[in-house]
Amino acid sequence: MSLANPSFPSSEAFDLINNSLKDDPKEKKDAIKKAGAIFAFTLKNKEGASESWYIDLKEKGEVGKGAAPESGKADVTLLCSDEDFGKLVRGTAKAQSLFMAGKLKIRGDIMKATRLEPILGKAQTKAKL
Fold first, then answer.
1. PANTHER family annotated for this entry (predicted)?
2. For all residues of the chain together, what is the average pLDDT?
3. Which residue range is the domain that position 77 belongs to?
């Protein structure tokens, strides 16, 4: 089942991250060990619609739709536009720069949010957003 939503072009990254975690159990275990958190993303597209996805790097090492897995809540929620998320995944923008410019809002444990960039890097090499 694809996690991508055509109304949110950058959402393809969630499929790439999910596939990366599924394809390499060692990498999945390492990502859970390093991140130890559930990350939620709420993206807003050009039409003003919002949608959420999560990356569970606390227990299961999976990606899904919604604000959090059924078993828990997100440790960190990142809010940004679909366009800015695409830039973040492609590596053309840094999370810190987007945050300082007010284009990325973070709710929850901001220190755990700093552990996310290497995880998004897994999608960078495969992303064609």
1. SCP2 STEROL-BINDING DOMAIN-CONTAINING PROTEIN 1 (PTHR10094:SF25), STEROL CARRIER PROTEIN 2 SCP-2 FAMILY PROTEIN (PTHR10094)
2. 90
3. 9-124
φ, ψ at 66 (rounded to 5°): 110, 175
Per-residue confidence (pLDDT) for residue 129, from 0 to 100: 44
In a domain, 3, yes or no: no
| Contact (Cβ atoms closer than 8 angstroms) between residue 16 and residue 2 | no
Query: What residues have CB less than 8 Å from 57, skipping those under 6 apart?
Result: 31, 32, 34, 35, 36, 37, 38, 39, 119
Closest CA to 7 of 81, 87, 103: 81
Could you report the per-residue pLDDT of 58-117, keeping only the tens digit for each? 999 999 999 998 888 999 999 999 999 999 988 899 989 999 999 999 999 999 998 887
In this structure, the number of other CB atoms found within 10 A of the CB of residue 53 comes to: 24
Q: Give the helix/strand (H/E) hosting 123.
A: helix 117-124
> What does the alpha-carbon distance between residue 41 and residue 79 come to, in Å, rounded to a whole number?
6
